[in-house]
Amino acid sequence: MGEPTPEQLRLLAVEVATAAGDLVSRGRPDRVEVAATKSSPTDVVTAMDTASEQLLRERLRAARPADGLLGEEEGHEPGSSGLTWVVDPIDGTVNYLYGLRSYAVSVAVVRSDGAPHPSTWTVLAGAVVDPSGGETWSAARGCGAWLTDARGTRALSVPSGPELGQALVATGFGYDARRRAEQAAVVARLLPRVRDLRRIGTASLDLCSVAAGRVDAYYERGLNPWDFAAGWLVASEAGAVVTDFAGGPAGDHGLLAAGRGLHPVLLEALR
Length: 271
Ligand code: IPD
Ligand code: CA
Hints:
The protein is of the alpha+beta class. It has 7 helices and 15 strands. It has 2 domains: 6-155, Fructose-1,6-Bisphosphatase, subunit A, domain 1 (Fructose-1,6-Bisphosphatase, Chain A, domain 1); 164-270, 3-Layer(aba) Sandwich (D-Maltodextrin-Binding Protein, domain 2), CATH 3.40.190. Strand 1 and strand 2 form a beta hairpin. 45% of the residues are buried.
C-alpha cells in the first residue's frame, strides 16, 4: 500500500481532531484544575490535555499503525512508514484553564527522515479544530486550505496585506521569564508602528486567523512543533508567506506569517 494522498490525510486529521475537540469542550468541568507543570510554573497541564492526547494517539494508531506520533504531553513514538502525526491535544491550555473560549486541538502529519523536525520535515496535511467557535480549519499540501463552520466549507485566501501602520498583528509569549523580557522589548518597539497587537493565546488559531484575514500577521519566537505544524500549513496553503525572522524556514527560533505585501515590511520591522 502506497502513501495516502494529502487529501486523505487531511480527512483523517479533521476526523481525529474533531473527536478530541468534542471531548475537550464537552468534558470541561466548571473549574479546571492544574494537573502538573512543565517548563515553568506557568506552563500547565490539565487532565484534559492528557485525555485528549490519549484519544488522538488511540485513533491514529488504529487508523495508521505504522506511522509515528509526536505529541505535546507524551513525546515522540517512532513509526516505520516515514509519516509522523504531530499533535497538540489542547493548544491554548491557559485559556482553557480560565474558561476563555480560544483554544484548539491541532493535528498535523509530516513526512520526515528520522525524528520529525521543522527544519527537515514536509507537512502534508493538518487540521485545527476550535470547538468553542464551531470552526474547523484544514489544509492539504498543494491542494489549499479551508474553513468549515455551520454555514459550510470555504477555501481560504490571504490578501497581500495593508501597510505596516494599518496592520493588526498577533503575537504570543513563551513560558520562560527571560524570553518574555526579550519579547516585551520587541513589543515595545513594534506597537507604536502598527494598528494594534493581539495576544490570542493559541498559536494554531493565530495562524488560522492569518489564513482567514482576521489578523494581518502573526509572529512568535519559541514555538513548539505541535503549536504550529497544522496552522503553518493552513496559513501557507491559504497563500500567506511563513518564514523565520531572517526569511528562512520557520521554526522554534522564529515564525512570521503574513500576506505577500506585508511580510517583507514586518520582517524588516522585527529585525
Ligand atoms: C501555547 C499557545 C500560546 C503561545 C505559546 C504556546 P499551549 O501553547 O499556543 O499562544 O504563545 O508559545 O506554547 O501551551 O497552550 O499548548
Ligand atoms: Ca498544548
